[in-house]
Write a structure and sequence with these properties.
By secondary structure, this protein is α+β, with helices and mostly antiparallel strands. Helices cover about 25% and strands about 25% of the residues.
């Protein structure tokens, strides 16, 4: 089945037309979406005034949903289903979150470059974000193509990075912005996870950097050397030629591949202006290190 596809960036990111996500998709429609997802890594769908149930149903076509966690914040009441992450500045009554809200402070780290759920042993395959209410100014999301960024590295550096493994922690990225108010139950629920620093696509063989602000250490390196390397690679991967910045409109829905892209929230006046975004996240099937071992074993 053919669908209308418009490239939005030379390396990645495409807009898909002629698809209504409020309706049940045929196998042919989803296969066409999947082909473009694998090619472009980030897909934009406009004018999708979908319900939470619509989003959850679409998400499940990509794989199993990672349930939302509130990191054991006492007294917090969920505003939406825990099949979705509440990427908003609103409480369960629809009011702006107070300045000292744990969820508000936790979410500020989303303004750092990251990939979703790399801090889980089995990380995320993709995420889907829908715009229900947007601020008058700001609140954009930037995406970086980590495949193109890897391709642009010097060959010797590619060799040096190839087998490095890194440890990712959700709490490490939050500590970077000065927020450490997590109890032991939260820390026990989401322990650090070890991932490849370079990922290989299991079907195409194309390689990609796998970076995030969650990286706390790299095996075989001192902490200072590891952070210097991570900061250097993130700076390289987020140069303008690898980045697309999206200005949200109500009804926009974006699905992105967490294995081969990074993203960050660009920030807005979240004290005075409402922003209601809802994210669903799909789990991958295997840890990135175990996947690399499988790929290596296939080699002749």
């Amino acid at each position: 089945m053919k669908i209308s596809v418009k490239k939005l960036h030379p390396h990645f990111m495409a807009e898909i037309d002629d698809i209504d996500l409020t309706e049940t998709l045929s196998d042919a429609q989803f296969e066409a979406i999947k082909v473009n997802f694998d090619e472009h890594a980030v897909l934009l769908f406009r004018n999708q005034l979908i319900s939470d149930d619509n989003q959850i149903a679409f998400t499940k076509l990509f794989g199993p949903i990672i349930k939302n966690t509130n990191y054991h914040r006492p007294g917090e009441i969920l505003r939406i289903s825990n099949d979705l992450s509440d990427v908003s500045n609103l409480d369960h009554n629809g009011n702006l979150l107070p300045l000292d809200s744990g969820r508000r402070l936790h979410s500020r780290a989303n303004r750092l470059w990251h990939t979703d759920a790399s801090f889980k042993h089995i990380p995320a395959r993709c995420s889907i974000l829908s715009a229900h209410e947007v601020p008058p100014v700001g609140g954009n999301t930037a995406f970086a193509d980590m495949r193109a960024a890897y391709d642009a590295l010097p060959n010797q550096q590619k060799v040096e990075l190839q087998r490095l493994t890194a440890w990712h922690s959700i709490f490490y990225s939050r500590e970077k912005i000065g927020y450490t108010d997590y109890n032991q139950a939260a820390r026990d629920e989401v322990p650090p996870a070890q991932q490849m620093l370079v990922r290989t696509h299991p079907e195409t063989g194309r390689k990609s950097l796998y970076l995030a602000s969650h990286i706390s250490s790299i095996d075989g390196m001192t902490d200072n050397a590891a952070q210097e390397l991570v900061e250097t690679l993130i700076a390289h991967a987020t140069q303008p030629q690898f980045v697309y910045e999206h200005e949200w409109q109500v009804g926009d829905l974006i699905v992105w591949d967490n294995r081969y892209t990074m993203h960050r929230a660009m920030g807005h006046d979240d004290i005075n202006h409402r922003r209601d975004m809802r994210r669903s996240t799909v789990s991958d099937e295997i840890n990135s290190i175990d996947l690399q071992k499988e790929i290596d074993n296939r080699a002749p």
